Amino acid sequence: MSSAEAIRLYRNLYRQINNQFTSVNGNLMWKNQLQSAFRAASAKTEAERASALRDARDTLNFLTSTKKYQDLYSEFNPKMSDEDRIKRSANRVGLGLPKTVEPKS
Question: Which PANTHER family match (predicted)?
Answer without folding.
Answer: ATP SYNTHASE ASSEMBLY FACTOR FMC1, MITOCHONDRIAL (PTHR28015)
